[in-house]
Amino acid sequence: LQFTEEKLGQAEKTELDAHFENLLARADCTKNWTEKILRQTEVLLQPNPSARVEEFLYEKLDRKVPSRVTNGELLAQYMTEAANDFGPGTPYGKTLIKVGETQRLLGAAEREFIRSASISFLTPLRNFLEGDWKTISKERRILQNRRLDLDACKARLKKAKAAEAKAAVTP
For the BAR domain, which residue ranges apply (predicted)? Predict the structure, then answer.
């Protein structure tokens, strides 16, 4: 009732401290930017949307995500196979083997980068959103409910004082 009356402009609302309001605004801003950064980093690390969905499902089911061959590793495999077809002794075959080995190393480095970025960067962001932010939201709801209770009590007290003053004036 208090919430509805406040929204309709029929009841007074106790304002929170300006510093506290600033903290709430900063918390909201932090949450929004953290979500955006998390999503975009996931897109950067895994551009394939269906692979991201698959990884998300594995994570929610508490299963180990199967290791995926990176594009660099796949290209290295193709180059090595092509070199074997052309003959490792031919100039083209030798070049394909060298470039293929380099691509394999690049693919392995990419895999390690994705793994370390996920552990060192994404995990803390997720921990904030799934842990700290949920706590902040819960405490904010509790504070809002307490403020509504306080304002409702103030309104009842005001009505009681008005009725008491009216009864004292009217003999």
Answer: 5-171
